[in-house]
Batch of 3 targets.
Target 1
Amino acid sequence: MYAQRVLSGMRPTGSLHLGHYHGVLKNWIDLQNQHPCLFFVADWHALTTTYDDPQGIVSATWDMVIDWLAAGVDPQRATLFIQSQVPEHAELHLLLSMLTPLSWLERVPTYKDQQEKLENKDLSTYGFLGYPLLQAADILIYRADQVPVGEDQVPHIEFSREIARRFNHLYGREADFEERAQLAISRLGAKNARIYEDCRKRFQQQGELAALERARDLLAGAASLSQSDRERLHGYLEGSGKTILVEPGALLTAASRMPGLDGQKMSKSYANTITLREDAVSVSQKVRRMPTDPARVRRNDVGNPEKCPVWQLHQVYSDADCQSWVQQGCRSAGIGCLECKQPVIDGILKEQAPMRERAQPYLDDPARVRSIIAEGNDKARHLAAETMHDVRSAMGLNYR
Ligand code: TRP
Ligand code: SF4
């Protein structure tokens, strides 16, 4: 199999917190070691809900990119870019809008949910309705195979698949498909071309699945093929037209159980967060002020860790020895709450230390962040341009 392309985006919400790290970024970091990855800042998506006060978007974007780098997202491995700096996303969004039934957008569950949740805002806008379509354009323009997202975003990935399918159905038949496919075959080299043709025949005439597999592997390994030739030959293999837009899969990120300072899930809207690069004094202050089992009024009152949000953090940050020290000490009033909190503070600071270290050079010299993003924007634009070329010609918009 050729390496599946992974893409994901995040709206610029400013400084990220430890919940983002445990829930999303760790996953990105795993993926970047296994796949070609594209990670981008969805600044246009942020605009769908902050259009009345967009001034913070740019600085939130830079802060967030520094957090990515701090967490260990590696620009040598993954391509990092900003959505609005690749205007092709907007072009694809527009072209897809021509074939997107309004009813498909209206029935995306996040539409009504979010509108009700943010009821103090007027979200009866065109941009907000089109949010999932812009997201579909983000994904389809890179022919992403896998999109790591949380559960709430799964309907958007499904929507993207439906749009890709509709597009391919409408435009997948190039007039000169046969010729282009033959030309692409000749680019495989004599030996592989022969194998491909043989497999294609065996699959189409005898339905041999092994032959289909073999040919797919061959295409996957054919480094000389452009992405569009590869798609063409995949389509030719199965006797269908060309797959112009690839249907993406959702790579479900396990829900983060990262607890916040009050025992609820860590989230900016609950004001219970610790940011990725929060300074040490503030971290220890916040943990020291955390509520504990209300039964422990005095030092010698016994407590129950199950009723204490600090225990939840021990489950993230402490080893088995420390955890049993907490269990026994709390239930016997053998330890005090401040004493109990110290290993949590130490654990958080230890986790943050390498992040702070990685962020420092970027804080000292913001030009380094700018140049990582400039390079990523270029790479992304290049990939997007390839897809747009195919999309335009499929839609009959090839002026040359
Ligand atoms: N809607 C996503 C979110 O809120 C952000 C996003 C925009 C995205 N475009 C994307 C995620 C493309 C994955 C792929 O989290
Ligand atoms: Fe919570 Fe620890 Fe205090 Fe028990 S000892 S109530 S677990 S902080």
Target 2
Amino acid sequence: MRHFTCLADLGPDGVHAVLDQAIAWKRCPPEAHLAGKILGMVFFNPSLRTRASFEAVMARGGGHAIVLEVGGGVWKLEDRIGAVMDQDRAEHVREAVPVLGRYVDLLAVRTFASCTNDDDDERDPVMRAFADYSTVPVISMESAREHPCQGLADVLTIAETFGETRGLPVTLTWAPHVKPLPKAVPHSFLLTAGAAGCRVRVAHPPGFELHPAVVSEAREFARASGGEVTFTSDQDEALEGSRVVYAKAWGPAAPGPLGPEAVRAFPSWRIEARQLARAASDAIFLHCLPVRRNVEVGDAVLDSPASRVIDEAENRFHVQRMLLDWLAR
Ligand code: CP
């Protein structure tokens, strides 16, 4: 059974193939390529871009999407093996997932990280349960470990802007927030930009490390594509001469003395015009959205000509069109 629940399901060669095909289909869109197909979309968490872009892909491709919001008109789902189900989770994924497979041709799942234990989140229990129990292909709409469609849309935006991703210096910088956020987006940018052969520089304050298993995987992907992955706690150093400034908030690697307030402890890391000026003169600014204006990123950056955040969001549609077509075959 073919799934797309993590970037490893594609690998570096697959990343280059998806980017090439997505660019080709932007010029010459396919017609009714998903006719007769039904996508079941299971949301454990809210969304704007992901929900709208997946539904748009199905509608424009001649197919149909069914949206199920877990806990909102749909039974709360249990995923723990051996759980005594005497609380509010009324149905186990062991039944729910194969039942859905009797109705739909593809399943899409969104389930966020717990943000309480990075090792548990890295194991990605809910997404793995869906992949294990499904009788139809499963695609990730973000999970505890990765947001692979977002990573592909990010790198597609870079590829369209600069033509070549191999050897391109790109910077992923931590940004402050009002609450600890999951690491799925920074993980996926690291993995996908590495697989595309970029020279990825990651900057974050001490204590906000990404998961070591994801970092190792990104380094392997980068090695295979001629890229590299480096880390620093000096944001200025990471931004110097970079062609891409990608800002993202994420939570600490482990609970520290500052607790959840740690994410507010470094306000000078907010991306303002000063930071953008350190990057190359033709640098672009990316963020997966939603973004907290003047907390993570200043208005002057989001409203500048360097910002490509709307194109980046559009590219979610283009990579997902490719991926759903591939999974539906
Ligand atoms: N970037 C992204 O996944 O946006 P949503 O959470 O709105 O879907």
Target 3
Amino acid sequence: MLPTLIPALLLATLACQPPSQDSGPVDDTGPSHPCLQAGADCTLAETATARGVHAGAAVPNGPSDERLAAMTTHFDSATAENAMKWGATCPTLGSCDYTQADAFMDFAEGARLRIRGHTLVWGQSPGHGHPGDLATLAEQADDPYTFMEQAITDHVTAMVGRYRGRVESWDVINEPLAPFGSTLDESVFYNAMGPDYLDLALRVAHQVDPNARLFVNEYVVSDYDGDKALAFVGLLDELMARGAPIHGAGIQAHLYLEVPELDALTALIATIAALGLDVELTEMDVAKLALQEQLDDGEDLFEAQAAAYGVLVQACLAEPRCTGVTTWGIDDGDSWLDSMPPYDAMAPHLPLLLDTDLQPKPAYHTVRELLASGGEA
Ligand code: G3I
């Protein structure tokens, strides 16, 4: 359970008010907001709110008071890194414990953060992305299609229903495409139901909480104009053509291999928006491996990283329907990259906006300044 943090969080919040104004109350957003002026001394969260584009972070399980205070100070949106996943709440089908998910919700609501639910249906990571026994039960079922249809319906109904009206947007489906391919991943869900599982999950989520924005979230390899990116756009288009209730697309933006071309990512975001969808960069981090060239040229790691984050955020800000950017973790002291093979071999990756002392890095200032300027470098 997350410890009660109100006193610490309250102090942290009060300590970071935007500069006092001589005039009356300041609107939350709008070009005259003090946090949108050059040189403003505002946090990332204050600037994001003024700009109207969320700046979020993924919250790990059981975070420290200090980490949560930093989360509250610097970000205005929260995603549960693991606590709300199907396998995390229900390690075996039907045997569920929502303690961690409830604790995340209590913290995020207490800190008045926008909440992204992550993720209802994910074919990877059995025992975590989905119940560890799901595949076996589906294989053993007389009718795997009906079995899986019921399992997804029950889970989405339970999870979306539990937090109805409190989760602003859900990653209903995570990574429907093959990890490095451009066809649907032959996941436990696909093997039982074919593509129908996608429409089912979206439809049930919308029935249970009609006000939540429903996203399909994908790990699009760094070449944002490659086959996988095109396949992702095609999938979104097909789902919309079938009448599936989908409101947005998440581009995870984990930069492991390289820094994307600004034009390629900007074009991908614009193409998705042109379908009539919102877009968010949902899992940003910049691993050392993505900056190898710059490091070999003698560039400073944190400066090169700041430039990479600048590409991501500029691409988002170029599209009005890009409604948020989220880093996959709060600070460099806790990144999945440092414990996940094969990336752990290059640990520490130091891939986020706050350093291991929870202090802003050059990338934090780059992101904040871009949000303040609206994307002008
Ligand atoms: O909670 C258990 C703990 O009880 C156990 O002792 C420990 C040892 O195995 O495992 C712990 O669970 C781990 C969990 O993270 C919490 O730390 C899981 O094994 C481990 O697989 C899980 O990794 C997460 C991974 O998704 C799979 O769910 C990462 O933290 C998380 O950052 C990563 O996030 C994904 C997004 O959800 C989707 N996009 C890609 C992204 C990176 O892979």
